[in-house]
Each structure stands twice: as C-alpha cells, then as structure tokens.
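Hey, weird one. I pasted the O-succinylbenzoic acid--CoA ligase sequence into the form twice and got a warning about non-standard characters only the second time. First submission, copied straight from the form history:
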Amino acid sequence: MVITLATCPSDLSWLNAPGPLLLGDDAGVLYLAQRIADRAALLRATGVIAGQIVMAPDAPARDLVLTLLALAQLGAGVFPYRSGRDPSELLTLAHRAGVEWRWDPETATLIPLAPQQTIPAAPAALLIQTSGSSGQPQIVMHSAAGLYASASRVNARLAVTAAATWLCCLRLSHIGGAAMVYRAALAGARLRLHDSFDARTVRRELESHHVTHVSLVPPMLARLLDLGDRAPPTLRVALVGGQALSRPLAERALAAGWPLQLTYGMTETGSQIATSGPLTAQPDALDTSLAGALLPDVALAATDCEADRPARLRVRGPLLMLGYANPERRPGQGLDADGWFTTADLGCLTEAGQLRLLGRADNRRVIGGINVSLTQVTQMVQNAPGVADAQVIATADPIWGHRLTVVYAGTCDERELAHWCQTQLHGPTCPRAFVRLERLPLLDSGKYDRGRMGELVAQLESG
C-alpha cells in the first residue's frame, strides 16, 4: 500500500469507533457509537469548536478514547496527559500549547483555560508530550493527515484488519499508546484497553481473549516472560520498540515462540517509521540492532553502514509532526526549512535498505581520550551471566573525564559482575562501579528511568 501526502485526508472523517472497544481486566464490552455522539453533543454545547484543543487525563483510558473520538467528530484536537498530574503542571502545559479547554472525567465537565483569539491555519488533531527519557520533554503537534498517514501504513505493514484484537497496555498519554487508538479505529479492529501496565493482567488477557497484536517496550516483555515463557496461542505480532531490545531477551522470547517484530520511531514521527519482519531464532540471522525497512513514503537521510562515523538520522515524510507546540500553535518549530526533522539517534542504512540503529548521539562519552558508546557497553553487559537487565550510567570524573557505572538486576552479585567485565571489557569501556537492584526503575512510558538511575549512582558516589 502506498499512500502519498496528497491523498491523506485533512480532517478526521476517516476515524471510526473501534468495534467493539473491550475494556481491560474483563470489565466488559463498550460499543461506542451512541456514547461518542452524546459526548460530542456535550462538548459542542459547552463551546468547543473546530480547531481547538482539549486536555484530558489518560485514565480512565476508556473515557479518554470517548473524548478523543468525540472531538474528532467536531474537528477539534486532544491533548492527553498522565492522570494525577499536579494542576500547576497542567496550567504550564496548557500555556505552552495555547490549549483552550480541560476535560474532567470525574465531573463530566469542561474547564475553560485561555482560549485562542484565532484558530491556527494548520490545526492540530493530537498534542502529545515526549517521554523525557533523555532531555527536556517537548509537546508535539500532529495533524489529522499525519495521523492517517501513520495509522494506514502501520496497519498495512502489520496486517491490522477488522479481525484483529490489539491489546493496549501502554499509557495513552504517550505516542505508542495513542497510536493504537487511531490504528484500531481506522481498521475497525477490537481494542482491549488498560489504564497502565500490570504484567499479570496483561499475561492473562493475552492468553484468554484472542489477542492478535500487542505493543511492548523491552522491560514489559521481560516481566511477561517472568510469568511464563510460552507465547500466547493467538498472538500474531508482538511489536517491541521504545528502546533497544537486548539479544538475550530476544533469544529468550523467540525460544518460547513469541512473534517478535522490532520497530523504531518517536513521538515526533507519530510512532514508528521502520518495522522489521518477524525475527528468527537462528543465531546467525538474529540482529536486534536492525529496526527493519522504512514505511512507505518515509524519507531518511542516513549514512550507509560502511561509513566510518555514524550520523544523526534525519526524517521527512507525511507522518511527521507539524512541529513542537507554542502558544499560537504555529507549525514548523523543530523542523528545518525543507521539513526535515533531525533526531538524537545514530544509525545507518544497509545495502538491503534496512535501518540499523547505533545508539543515541547524546549517549556517547569521552573517557581517557576515547569516544565510548554507552549503548555498546550496555549491550555487552546484558550478555553477562546472571544479568537479567542492565543499563550503563556515565558520571563526571576529574581524571578520566567520565566513569561508567552499571545499574542492573540479576542473580550475580557485584563482585562477580565486576570480574566478568574486567575479562570482557577493557580500558575506558570497563565499568568501575555496580548498583544491583531488584528491578530497574521505569518511566510511565515503560522506558528506563535513567534520571532515577543517575540519582542512585550519585548517592553511591557521595556515600
């Protein structure tokens, strides 16, 4: 399927209710048509007009989906945010993006904020904040055309049809979760919704509710495998993205029959821009650094994989964001004059047109005059015996420039892991300290909370 930007609809008329929406943890089935019409009527009567934005919490997830689809009927946009955020934080976010309204699901009322004097010429259908896993979070604006471009291409790549059941255990305030709503609505697929990730509930539903598609970040996959390695019988696609998948975790899942497919993307690209085919358990064929082929019509400026130095990936295409939010919601912020977005990720294209990821540009440190990739060191440490999960944190060192600390979970103790590192990693690539945890801390998005890990390392160094 090839869909060019010119054929992407400029509104959300293509967005239908997923049929039916199934609530997580056996809460029941929700058929949406009348509820969406009622919610749209309430929003219209309160004063919402086309082009405006309504903030709404991501829990209950079913209420957010109702609001999202109702706003689509009005030609208005939605800005999902993590439920429970401090009211002062919400006001700051609203000001940064010129948001007109906030929806309160507890009272079923709209709260007016600071209305725009004029509706932007390029209205946004979705505003969504980046995870902040590295750096200051941004608010990203997506158009209806961009959401359609993404949903239609991903559905074609992953064979999402009306017969599919997609389990959504990613929060809807992150692009990975929100994108599933648009894909299911476009295909008329079933959508099982969870307010957050609970491994036991998700594992049970995967086994008992004919789920065909699920999206996970690697820590979620690890938690599910801990509850039982056997792959759910009806699962056709287990999409893994958000961060690098370690080879040991991939091998463990593949050995149990999980239908893994890797993906690469970000909030700015409306979720994924590259997706692999099904991974194979054959050792010579397994390469977890390959994110797969680009989606149709995605342009990528990248070096070939024979180049000596990897470069930051640059992306352009119909599924790209309008830009970062500003009070007037003017498009273009964060994009260059030709519409390219420069990512923080390093990568290259193979001769076969596969995207190979080489870590983040901000994930490299100079140690003793040597440029060290924290991603490569992490991948090595994850292969150590007795290590279930690991991340490498770099801190300043007055002599060497930086020093490396491993934050990990597993059965081996710190002395055993230090000895293994000394035999496998040399010079500046060898970590000097180790912090063992029962589990690595995660953000709401399911990604590793590297900020929290940095705090733990700082406590170790100061203590």
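That's the output from the first submission. The warning seems to come from a hidden character in my clipboard, not from the data itself. The CA atoms of residues 40 and 73 lie 7 Å apart.
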